[in-house]
Amino acid sequence: MxxxxxxxxxxxxxxxxxxxxxxxxxxxxxxxxxQHGFSAKVFDAAGDVGGTWYWNRYPGARCDVPTxxxxxxxxxxxxxxxxxxxxxxxxxEILAYLGHVADRYDLRRDIxxxxxxxxxxxxESASRWCVxxxxxxxxxxxxxxxxxxxxxxxxxxxxxxxxxxxGEIYFTGKWPHDVIDFTGKRVAVIGTGSSGIQSIPLIAAAxxxxxxxxxxxxxxxxxxxxxxxxxxxxALAADRxxxxxxxxxxxxxxxxxxxxxxxxxxxxxxxxERFEAAWEAGELFAIGTVFxxxxxxxxxxxxxxxxxxxxxxxxxxxxxxxxxLCPKDYPFATKRPCLDxxxxxxxxxxxxxxxxxxxxxxxxxxxxxxxxxxxSFEFDAIVYATGxxxxxxxxxxxxxxxxxxxxLREKWADGPSTYLGLTTTGFPNFFTITGPGSPSxxxxxxxxxxQHVDWVVDxxxxxxxxxxxxxxxxxxxxxxxSQHVADCAAITLYPTANSWYMGANVxxxxxxxxxxxxGVGVYREKCDxxxxxxxxxxxxxxxxxx
Length: 546
Ligand code: FAD
Ligand code: NAP
Hints:
The protein is α/β, with parallel strands linked by helices and 546 residues long. Helix content is 32%, strand content 17%. It is built from 17 helices and 20 strands. α1 runs parallel beside α15, α6 packs across α7 and α15 packs parallel to α17.
């Protein structure tokens, strides 16, 4: 439809849709928009495509959903021509896959890299968004989509003295492109979430000394990495369409057993057998759903939590270290559990030490290391594996201004509220991919991303066909959905943990359980129903012509 300019002074260029982000979401969105005849421009702060897989280059970075499932399914040809080498592919392999996708569908020509979107302002009179970047680009569009990721804004270290350290500093979420060699070095890792747990064994393998600073221990199960699981490959080979359909209608976005079996009601041998099978399978969704009441019943949850603690105690030789590594103050799976390769074994190595920050809090980072309340440590490098301002962070870090000059940051000051996790009142023609209020981070995200993108593009198609210029949820629909999201969370154990799902990892962030727990299949049905009923819960306004 329109041509894109770049701040050359001839007035803003115009496209149908501006997209922020060129990860799994933005790439597929661009492809689908083009297929439907919409013009689009994508911006990404990264130097190339990949999103998460562009930034998180730390040693050991891999997916934790099997790669048979953590991949696009929209094009059977693409599936046929790409073979994953492992059950859990490495970051370089996933990045290569997304590069291949960008080439295959000729996507890069509409993506501007190394460019951060700083603001987007709704122009009421023109019914257009005006988007500005840190390079001075100005571009107007009918619709504005944040495909900016849930885990794309690394948390600024909230640790005293963090900027004083004169040695090497690394963030897992913004890892350098050069090979980092820790050989012969004294290294500190702060944080024991998924990124810490993946990187610690590899950093330990190279470093002269490794000190791990742990605030909260995490539940982790062995990935059992190797070739892609034979049963999943066989199911795909037998009937690919049925397999992909099962993923779409499943609770998690990965086909698997759905059981109602209660852990407390099950006989001990059944519990043990099911647990051991899930442990051996090395799949997070398998162990997270090994009993139907795990996330609803504290006593059931404790049964599985204790079985994992037994495993930790059986691996870690020093009993004190083992106890420190055992999570005890939140239910299993209410903080994102991890998949590891030799994580707990790493603490048996003589040059690896665990510091329990609950007992020995960090007082300050110094020029040469870290001081805890009772010890001074000297390091050559500090690795921050301290996580992200998740879900809302990337959205409110852009100045998005909707009707009546209200910004998204102001609207969400007490926590996000959305309709379907896709839209929010006061911000017409504004969409989020895997936004708060969608299953996103509780699911296999690629399945959720494809569903969101399909819904958003189909919505654009419908609006165009009916000559509607704007779409925006009604306050009532948004309030209803937000209440439903909160109600679903409230009947589970999730809100009892200080997790990033709750915003608890970022000081001052409102405590609200952000993702939708209802499940991928249920959520999809709801979205389809809304569209089938002529966008129930939305206000659509007619335009003056296409
Ligand atoms: P991202 O991949 O995060 O891409 C968003 C892009 O938007 C980024 O490149 C960013 O630079 C850009 N951006 C954001 N704001 C701006 C701005 N203002 N201006 C310009 N550009 C901007 N999920 C799973 O389901 N399974 C897994 O195994 C899994 N493993 C993960 C491993 C790691 C290390 C991490 C951090 C996350 C993992 N996730 C996993 C979640 C992962 O984020 C999603 O699976 C998926 O990659 C998200 O894709 P996306 O395109 O929505 O967002
Ligand atoms: P995270 O899960 O939030 O872990 C951050 C860690 O840093 C936690 O242990 C946290 O402790 C600690 N921490 C934060 N601030 C601290 C401070 N000021 N002082 C001391 N410790 C501090 O972040 P992440 O590991 O990057 O993972 C985020 C999410 O990304 C994961 O949950 C997952 O969804 C995804 N991911 C997936 C994979 C994968 O396996 N495919 C790998 C990496 C990431 P507290 O728990 O006490 O806050």
